[in-house]
Amino acid sequence: MKIYFYTPEFFSGGTKMIYRHAEILTSHGFSAFVLHTKNGFINKAFRHAAPVRYWKDIHITPEDIIVIPEYLAIWTNPEVNPHGVKGFLKRKFSANRFRYLAYQAIHSQAKIVLYNQNPFYTFFDYPIKPHHLRYPYLLPNCIGAVCVSQNNFEYLKLAFPELPIFRIYYSIDAELFKPVTKKKQVGYLTFKNQKEVAQVVNLLLLRGNLKGYQLVPISGTEEEVAARFNESAVVLNFGNIEGFGLPPAEAMLSGCVVIGYHGEGGREFMLPEHAFPIAHGDIISFVKTTEAVLAALVTDDQSFNALTTTAREFIGKNYSKEKEEATVVSAWRNLLAKTAGL
After folding, report:
1. Start-to-end Cα distance in the chain
2. Per-residue model confidence as pLDDT tens digits over 90-145
């Protein structure tokens, strides 16, 4: 029996975690692999030691398990044509032949586990009217789902109360994300909610209340993002509604004052005692809070030392490698125990 994590050929926090999930299972004696349909592809945007396999080189058996990302759930329906997929999937899978190979993997004879890292993608591309498309979570060969936050877990239990669902914990690398001498720098990621990023950044520039701090866009590899977080005094988070939200947790571990959206999944760590959560879309509060934080830092650059210290301790304790490994291994031992009846 082998566990194959179907993984698309693009970088995101979610793909990084798929690699890590497979890596952890392998280190504990499971036959687990990242599965790509593009021959020879290995994601080089982050560090990993996960074993990788390619669709053309493997033979799927009924004893094997295919782990499917939540946003591909609709493809379990044979009437959905992979060449005609619209929206998100069409943008992410630009080469039709790779989309079709992914479709083949999902429709193999293997058992199914849903790896749900964003509950708000659970019904991605499903109609917004009554329909007869099936949900993969209810298929007889689906042995369960894995999710990544308390909000994620509660959402899936609301939808599929009879399904075995296991919550795992992410870990944040304390060797990579660690504070250095802080610069007068306000970092922000640019690849999510770009229209809202543009509003906040331009309002801050227009109002001229940055108090000598520089606005610095952050992008790049995991190491490059970590280097920027580590030196930034403040980080603005514009994350979408999502399952967890790695960047604000990483920034908190880097000792930054984090301002912004918790994205629902981040409710469990973007608490008022650790950060400055902003209601999603509240641009006015976002700008005014940032200006107030900068004004306080100019008066006393240690104004938020207690907040950043407790935030760093909270992330380090609750999202450690040990906790991640323990929850991943426990989830899969329970999932495999359920295969006996299928």
Report:
1. 14
2. 545 445 455 667 777 778 889 999 999 999 999 988 889 998 888 999 999 999 99
Mean pLDDT of 278-302: 96
**Any residues with CB less than 8 A from the CB of 198 and at least 6 apart, and which?**
none
Q: Where are the beta strands (DSSP E) in the chain?
A: 3-6, 32-36, 52-54, 65-69, 111-116, 142-147, 165-167, 183-189, 214-218, 232-237, 257-260, 276-277
Strand ranges for 101-155 from DSSP E = 111-116, 142-147
Task: Read off the CATH number of the domain in which 20 is found.
Answer: 3.40.50
- Burial track 131-152 (b if 16+ CB lie within 10 A, e otherwise): eeeebbbeeeebbbbbbbbebb
CATH number at 291 reads 3.40.50.2000
CA dist 253 and 314 (Å) reads 9
Residue 177 belongs to some domain of the structure: no
Q: CA 10, CA 88: separation in Å to the nearest integer?
A: 13
- In a shared domain, residues 336 and 248: no
**Cβ 22 vs Cβ 32: under 8 Å:** yes
My answer on whether 23 and 151 are in the same domain is: yes
Please give the order of strands across the beta sheet that includes 257-260: 214-218, 183-189, 232-237, 257-260, 276-277
User: What's the residue count for the chain?
Assistant: 342
Q: Which amino acid is at 334?
A: N
Model confidence pTM above 0.85: yes
If asked whether residues 70 and 141 sit together in one domain, one would say yes
Q: Is residue 178 part of a domain?
A: no
Q: Which amino acid is at 99?
A: R
Q: In total, how many domains does the chain have?
A: 2
Residue with tokens 């039709």: 96
The CA distance from 27 to 12, in Å, is 23
Question: What is the DSSP code string of 39-84?
Answer: TT----SS-----EEEGGG----TT-EEEEEGGGGGGGSTTS-GGG
Find the domain containing 282 and state its range: 183-318
